[in-house]
């Protein structure tokens, strides 16, 4: 299912030897790199739902992971939902309701237009407010302000809606694309951790299928191992 190093195409940059697969994923083989390029980052994908308690716990764990290996990974979020043309605002059914869809859009637009440190701080701020506040316009706007995310001028506001509704056209399209990619990846549980194209752990009420462990130290070790493989001379 995960046969190569993958990262979501709109969160990653193409380099020599890279190509976009039919699923919209950037695929990179380690042998395509030589010393003339910068170091190769490890793709890390978290399959989540913005209002899901498991996702919030998982993102809290990864906040500690980033303290150690932020410079060695390309981090992205991919969102779980179901495409549904009868849903009037988002065209997607989200497990925890329309406000979760809006929260997903807020996060996707931040990812689209802000550097990793900024959008990650924004996500952490949303989580800190409590999951029932995620997806509300006021929560998004206040977290943008408190984390230094320029809602009006960075492109985030235009993407997600200047009013914070999450219903602007670009953001809705990003949500549909993300849900489609998540389905193509075979991710069904929030939160699913994927490191270098391999699902390594799931938190679904409890930690499951985590052969390499599930603590920040365990994830750091696995990332370091993959980073070393990708950058061996």
Summarize the structure in words.
It contains seven helices and ten strands. The protein is of the alpha+beta class and 233 residues long. The strands form three sheets. It has a five-stranded mixed beta sheet, sandwiched between helices. It has a three-stranded antiparallel beta sheet with strand order 1-3-2, with no helix packed on it. The chain has a two-stranded antiparallel ribbon with strand order 6-7. Helix 1 links the parallel strand 4 and strand 5. Helix 1 packs across helix 7, helix 2 packs across helix 6 and helix 3 packs across helix 4. The protein is globular, with a radius of gyration of 17 Å. The N terminus is likely disordered.
Please tag this protein with its features:
single chain; 233 residues; alpha+beta; five-stranded mixed β-sheet; 18% strand; disordered N terminus
- Beta-strand share of residues: 15-25%
- The shape is globular
The count of strands amounts to 10
SSE string: EEEEHEEEHHHHHEEEH
Helix residue percentage = 25-40%
Strands across the major sheet, in which order?
A: 5-4-8-9-10
The secondary structure category is: alpha+beta
**Largest sheet at a glance?**
5 strands, mixed
Number of helices: 7
Give me the Rg, rounded: 17 Å
What is the residue-averaged pLDDT?
87
Intertermini distance = 28 Å
Give the SSE map.
Blueprint: E1 5-8, E2 19-20, E3 25-28, E4 42-48, H1 53-69, E5 73-79, E6 82-83, E7 92-93, H2 98-113, H3 116-128, H4 137-146, H5 156-160, H6 169-185, E8 192-195, E9 198-204, E10 206-208, H7 216-230
